[in-house]
Amino acid sequence: MNSITTHAAGMAVLVAALFALVPVSGCTDWIKAVFYIDHMETENRTSRMHVERIVDALSLEPGEIAADIGAGSGLFTRKMAERVRPGGTVYAVDINRKLLAHIGKTSGDLPIRTVLAGEDDPKLPAKVDLIFLCDTLHYIDKPAYYVGRMASHLGPGGRIAVIDFIRNWPPMSNRFTVDELKAWMKSAGLEVAREFDFVEDEFFIMFVKK
Questions:
Q1: Strand 190-196 relative to strand 202-209, pairing
Q2: pTM of the predicted structure, to 2 decimals
Q3: For residues 73 and 61, what is the distance between their CA atoms, to the nearest angstrom?
Q4: Residues sharing a CB contact under 8 Å with residue 199, sequence separation 6 or more, in sequence order
Q5: Is 10 in a helix, a strand, or coil?
Q6: Of 16, 74, 109, 196, which sees the most CB atoms within 10 A?
Q7: CB atoms near residue 182 (< 10 Å)
Q8: For the chain, which domains are there?
Q9: Full strand arrangement of the beta sheet holding 112-116
């Protein structure tokens, strides 16, 4: 395990311990928001994640409608929004109100709309061309069901891009295999369009709606 991975794992353990000490959901939202805002956009993480390369791989076009599910601090949301101008929109989707407020404050004039999701539904207000999830699906309790809900929000030829772990999973993860993910997508009417291998310790797969 390299130093970057060790640091990330250590921070994940720390924040998990903090969550356990704070039973009030509003306070928990605040602690999660502080963690993501302070640590998810560090130079080490953004370099390891190859943020620009990932956004390039999404092949977003001006005018498209996209959703960043589990948007966190908005790192990918903002980059995606730059690609869909003019005429497009990116929905920043999260269950944490504090994080959504942060994204709203830091979006400037980018075409970003925040969406408060449910635990089992992204609650997108319109059909989208692309749904993107980075390090998010492993936190969802019923991933197969959630994949179906995402698929219902896609327009014809819409795509879902998923990045998640193949090793060094964070604490409290609902682990799954790539084969399981592909089976869930197939059941939801999607097939593999392309697979990428440049994200360390993680898979990156683009699916397209048949």
A1: antiparallel
A2: 0.82
A3: 23
A4: 49, 50, 54, 163
A5: helix
A6: 74
A7: 16
A8: 50-209 (3.40.50.150)
A9: 112-116, 89-94, 65-69, 128-134, 154-165, 202-209, 190-196
Residue 60: both structure tokens together: 């977003």
On the CB side of 2, CA atoms within 13 Å amount to 6
CA atoms within 13 A on the CB side of 32: 22
User: Between 18 and 76, whose confidence is greater?
Assistant: 76
Mean pLDDT over 64-90 rounds to 96
Largest CA distance in the chain: 46
Task: Please name the residue that has the structure tokens 């640590």.
Answer: 39
CB burial readout 1-33, b (16+ within 10 A) else e: eeeeeeebeebbeebeeebeeeeeeeebbbebb
- Would you state the structure tokens that stand for residue 100, as one six-digit string? 């959504």
93 or 12: which leads in pLDDT: 93
Mean per-residue pLDDT of the chain: 85
